[in-house]
Amino acid sequence: MNPVIELLNSHRSIRKFTDQPIPQETVKTLVQAGQAAATSSFIQACTVIQVNDQDKRNQLAECAGGQAYVAEAPVFLVFCADMQRNKLACEMNDAEINSGFTEQFITATVDVALFAQNLTVAAESLGLGIVYIGGIRNQIARVSELLELPELVYPVFGLCLGYPDQNPEVKPRLPVEVVLKQDSYSDSGDQETIAEYDQAVREYYQTRTGGNKEMTWSEQMSGMLVKEARPHMLSFLQDRGFLLK
Ligand SMILES: Cc1cc2nc3c(=O)[nH]c(=O)nc-3n(C[C@H](O)[C@H](O)[C@H](O)COP(=O)(O)O)c2cc1C
Predict the structure, then answer these.
(1) Which class for 174: exposed (0-12), middle (13-18), buried (19 or more C-beta within 10 A)?
(2) Domain tally for the chain?
(3) What are 39-76's pLDDT values in tens digits?
(4) Closest Cα to residue 85, out of 37, 39, 142?
(5) CB of 157 sitting under 6 A from ligand 1
(6) Could you tell me if 161 and 206 lie in one domain?
(7) Residue 245, in any domain of the structure
(8) Could you tell me which of 162, 157, 155 has the C-alpha nearest to residue 30?
(9) Collapsed DSSP state (helix, strand, coil) of residue 161
(10) Which Enzyme Commission number(s) are listed (predicted)?
(11) In the Cβ-directed half-sphere of 175, how many Cα atoms lie within 13 Å?
């Protein structure tokens, strides 16, 4: 191991923060670390909105289903997939962007994820804690309006940042044999391995909740994946100029 891999393996989401502020210089440093991530064809399609206004924060917390840490964290960032800037780049060269391709949606979204994870690792290397907030997509239209996002821009997720005021255990991940395949896809033997992993997750939740939560990984997935998943997303994204072709 080395310190970078140890840092990566020690990640756990933080949902309770101290009042210690994060200097704006640090926020800038973190955003620059995000920008250093690889970017599909150099499109640099990530825009970050730092939300300082407390009323907006409260509304975002509400949009995310009442997640108080969205309102309370010292810093809250919204990561947006942004093809509007690329449209501008085309216009600067008297060209008209041919937008709406699914491929562009994928590349812009992947850019955002790589940027955010770079920023996250940089933050954790400074002793900060984070939690991603996909919950803002519950009310994505309201979030977009609140942040005045133009066409060709959509909010992918938020991120709470601050100094941890809790020290949760690292959540066990699937055994590597289940996620690393050789030469072709095969799931033979996976069910047995997942059943063992289920027990590790059950123990993790029992310890974390003092015996209040009894849940395996496969139970958690089967509870969630039988439900609809934010069915408003497709029409919203199409309305903003994504996923049209
Ligand atoms: C894109 C994304 C969105 C997420 N959205 C939320 C969220 O809205 N609220 C929350 O409490 N956690 C959220 N999480 C955190 C996950 O629940 C968490 O990463 C996962 O359970 C694994 O736990 P760990 O990060 O502590 O290892 C999100 C994570 C990701 C990557």
Answers:
(1) middle
(2) 2
(3) 999 999 999 999 999 999 999 999 999 999 999 999 99
(4) 39
(5) yes
(6) no
(7) no
(8) 162
(9) strand
(10) 1.5.1.38
(11) 15
Q: Whose CA is nearest to atom 28 of ligand 1?
A: 132
Domain match, 205 and 232 both: no
CA 80 to chain centre: 11
- Cβ–ligand 1 distance for 132 under 6 Å, the answer yes
- In testing the pocket of ligand 1, which one of 46, 69, 131 has its CB within 8 Å of the most ligand atoms? 131
**From the alpha carbon of 173, which atom of ligand 1 is closest?**
27
Residue type for position 102: T
Pocket test residue of 132, 216, 233 for ligand 1, highest count of atoms within 8 A of CB = 132
pLDDT in tens, 131-173: 999 999 999 999 999 999 999 999 999 999 999 999 999 999 9
Q: Is residue 109 part of a domain?
A: yes
Question: What b/e readout covers 220-230, taking b as 16+ CB neighbours within 10 angstroms?
Answer: eeeeeeeeeee
Nearest CA to ligand 1 atom 7: 133
CA-nearest residue for atom 30, ligand 1, is 132
The boundaries of the domain holding residue 108 are: 3-168+228-239
Q: What is the pLDDT of residue 213?
A: 87
Give pLDDT tens digits for 184-236.
999 999 999 999 999 999 999 998 888 888 899 999 999 999 999 999 999 99
Work out the mean pLDDT of the chain and round it to a whole number. 97
